[in-house]
């Protein structure tokens, strides 16, 4: 019996998901398979979602039958809440919504706690998804023509919003109704407005913005829960001053931007990683000096001339200033080189 209980250890030997025959030996082996980083068992993983361990499934909207086959496992072993990631692509996929809403109703009637991650592509409006949105923790929109984020009701569960390659005048104002948002990712979208809305989200932890017009990050200065910021590829962004003093901020990525200094990071006492690669106007790292938790600084292919700004960074482990416009001065760092 002991050998069967320990069989789940052997799932770690597989780079790809372990064979179903091994995962089906007993509940221990099944859970070991579901935790496997290669993809779990038959689409089912045990993995973190918004920092909570859950049973997760990812399926195309037309493949609801695949989830149906696996529900017996969830119904019998409720160690973790259920999170279902569903990809809807094109207007024809809207016909699948009714089936998913019925499945959600079945789960609720069986007292199975569940949430959705909706990945929606090539669909203009979220209005047809109203029922599923009531249980949505994540919403991602790709290649959509949108003019605003509709003020839909019942989004209290929503934790993560992503927008990629969307067209139209995109007003973020309605995100203020999603008070529990922790993550926002917006990339390659035209006409984004009302970015100041992000500063009114009290639980926002992760922000990734790319390839639309912003000239400062002042709109983030009220986000006291912020831990990670990515604002890469903004040549009109010259300062990070809006981030100054954010006590929980751990990671900043401003590569390929127009920043001229990192003084705005002074006072970020929890900062660990700074990425300012390919920032041609950035000549020094002043602003990082004395920050006690900085471990990694990536400033290669930038305008850095001296690394004196890293003085007294006691936790520093990695510095990359290779291929800079001039050879940076390693004053105070004998034996170090780029």
Automatic annotation (TrEMBL):
Among InterPro entries, the record links this protein to: LRR_dom_sf (IPR032675), SDS22/Internalin_LRR (IPR050836)
Kindly state which keywords UniProt assigns to this record, in alphabetical order: Leucine-rich repeat, Repeat
Please verify whether the record's keywords include Repeat.
yes
Please give the name of this protein: Uncharacterized protein
Q: Read off the lineage from the record.
A: Eukaryota, Discoba, Euglenozoa, Kinetoplastea, Metakinetoplastina
